[in-house]
Amino acid sequence: MAMKIECLVCLKETTIPRNLNTEKYDGQITCRECGALLQVKLVKSKVEQCKVVMDGKARLSPPNAIESAKQAQREGRFYLEEKS
Description:
The chain has one domain (4-74). It is elongated. The protein contains one helix and five strands, in the order βββββα. It has a three-stranded antiparallel β-sheet. Strands 1-2 form a two-stranded antiparallel sheet. It has one helix at residues 62-74, and strands at residues 4-6, 13-15, 24-30, 37-43, 46-54. The mean pLDDT is 78. With 84 residues, the chain is of the alpha+beta class.
């Protein structure tokens, strides 16, 4: 049986790819419904942590992606590193 998590953006279930080790995984997953990028930490096939890296709608255009990233940073959902 495939493991599923609820997307924090669209609130729909998305399946964890079968090739990921759900016993110990700390990385990113893309929601198959809305395209949101989620940072997840799985331990013993349970979600220990999940946060939004980028909203799904943001992948449609670069200006929206930049604005969504800045909004997420203001809300404390992730930290945007400035390139120098």
